[in-house]
Design goal:
With about 450 residues, the protein is an all-beta fold. The protein folds into two domains: about 350 residues, Methylamine Dehydrogenase, Chain H (7 Propeller), CATH 2.130.10.10; about 80 residues, Sandwich (Immunoglobulin-like). The chain contains one helix and 36 strands. The longest helix has 4 residues.
Length: about 450
């Protein structure tokens, strides 16, 4: 499969707990040597299904073993290494950890001294895989260590009311949280776990019921669906809305729910529940260029969209027709309907796409500011070091980024880089990716130098 640069987590919120009781959620898990696996969460019958994308058929259900049974599984995100899935369950107030090889629950997240989960909604994982963010249908956003599977802190800096959607930028520095109660979209600094600002809608209609978030692979743009107002385009550098997606001659957005961005960043797909349409958006023009054609069971209320890691297939979940569709992203046409010989779907709902990048992420990435003195003059420079990549056999070289701008291309035998003529006391974020002969990049390692 083709792997594209960076990593993005896209998650979805549910409109309310009443709906959450009946609608499954699906997500894509990418494996480097096998076909992708799709997980479907069914809120109606309390099951988590496993779909083989080669046959487009349900092949298994996830076992909870000695842990509490699923009641209303709602949200899901997968660690960057593809080994574990985190699943929220609004029905029993639990966050599960699933081994994606055995398809079995191996742990549940402990809240410790923090408030117990009441209605955990959606979950997103940072690109380094160390932390997960969980929204709830109340005033709390939790931060979880994926090492200990325990809550470590709560996001501060805002008076949340009804949080739902959450997504972390591929660079891992900002998490965006939607809140249908406050009618805001918040930007959370992942270093301090503090809300730093609300997204500005100056010049546009303000948010009403912001729902889900998807972020482009370059971390530059976020797409937010709003059940009342359509689809917003957010510039992540300024944290401001810069456009509203135009539907042109296509059906107007009506209750847009799910949103995703293809791994190459060229297209965004939006599921329009009440318009019974799956929209195709050009991310350059921010305009709808097509709606998905369907000669199978007609769309009724599509609410979720997710692509496979190579971007070739889009899976759309439809709560109205109780169907999961496979869509060819080249033709934007439905090519198959997922078969299920297990307990039938009740109402598939929600989606996220998690590509696994290869080669592997560079390890032990560190940075420090140094000083060179020339008689009475001196120069400050930032020195970056890292270890040989674990997948060194396929690594051609490394890309270095400063504040999301590529500044150097290095060989696979270089493990030091010096960025000269830097100012003192200026906070700078560096990231490094490994790339192979085809130009595929790993997930980034990130360091901040103050």
């Amino acid at each position: 499969m083709t792997i594209y640069k960076f990593f993005g987590v896209i998650t979805a919120s549910l409109r309310c707990f009443a709906f959450a009781l009946f609608f499954p959620l699906l997500i894509v898990v990418a494996h480097q040597t096998f076909a992708d696996t799709v997980y479907v969460l069914d809120n109606g019958n309390g099951e988590v299904y496993v779909i083989d994308t080669t046959t487009n058929a349900v092949t298994a259900t996830v076992s909870t073993g000695s842990f509490p049974a699923f009641v209303a599984p709602t949200g899901i995100a997968i660690t960057p290494d593809g080994k574990f899935a985190y699943v929220t369950d609004q029905g029993n107030g639990t966050v599960y950890v699933i081994n994606t090889v055995s398809h079995a629950v191996t742990a549940i997240v402990s809240t410790g001294s923090f408030p117990a989960f009441t209605a955990p909604d959606q979950v997103a994982i940072t690109s380094d895989g160390k932390f997960a963010y969980v929204t709830t249908d109340d005033f709390i956003v939790y931060v979880i260590s994926t090492t200990t599977n325990a809550v470590t802190t709560l996001v501060s800096g805002a008076s949340f009311i009804l949080t739902g959607g959450v997504a972390v930028t591929p660079l891992g520095t900002v998490a965006y949280v939607t809140d249908r109660g406050t009618h805001e979209v918040y930007a959370v600094d992942t270093a301090s776990n503090t809300v730093t600002t609300t997204v500005s809608t100056t010049g546009f209609t303000g948010f009403s019921r912001p729902f889900r978030v998807a972020i482009t692979p370059d971390s530059a743009t976020a797409y937010v669906t709003d059940q009342d107002n359509g689809v917003y385009v957010i510039d992540t550098a300024s944290n401001a809305v810069t456009a509203m997606v135009s539907t042109g001659s296509f059906p107007a957005f009506s209750d847009p729910i799910g949103v995703t961005v293809t791994p190459n960043g060229n297209v965004s797909y939006v599921a329009g529940e009440s318009s019974s349409s799956v929209y195709v958006i050009n991310t350059t023009t921010n305009a709808v260029t097509a709606t998905v054609t369907n000669s199978f069971i007609a769309f009724s209320a599509p609410v979720a969209v997710a692509t496979t890691s190579d971007g070739a297939i889009l899976y759309a979940a439809d709560e109205g027709s109780a169907t999961v569709y496979a869509i060819n992203t080249t033709t934007n046409a439905v090519t198959a309907i997922v078969s299920n010989t297990f307990t039938p779907f009740v109402g598939p709902y929600g989606v996220a796409s998690i590509p696994i990048a290869t080669p592997l992420t560079p390890k032990n990435f560190r940075g420090v500011q140094k000083k060179i003195t020339f008689l009475s003059q001196y120069e400050l420079f930032n020195r970056l070091t890292w270890a040989a990549n674990p997948s060194a056999a396929v690594v051609v070289g490394y890309f270095i980024y400063r504040d999301n701008v590529k500044i150097a291309t290095l060989s696979n035998t270089t493990f030091v880089y010096e960025d000269h003529n830097r100012a003192k006391g200026v906070s700078t974020i560096y990231s490094i990716t490994a790339f192979d002969a085809s130009g595929n990049q790993s997930l980034p390692s990130i360091v901040r130098i103050n």
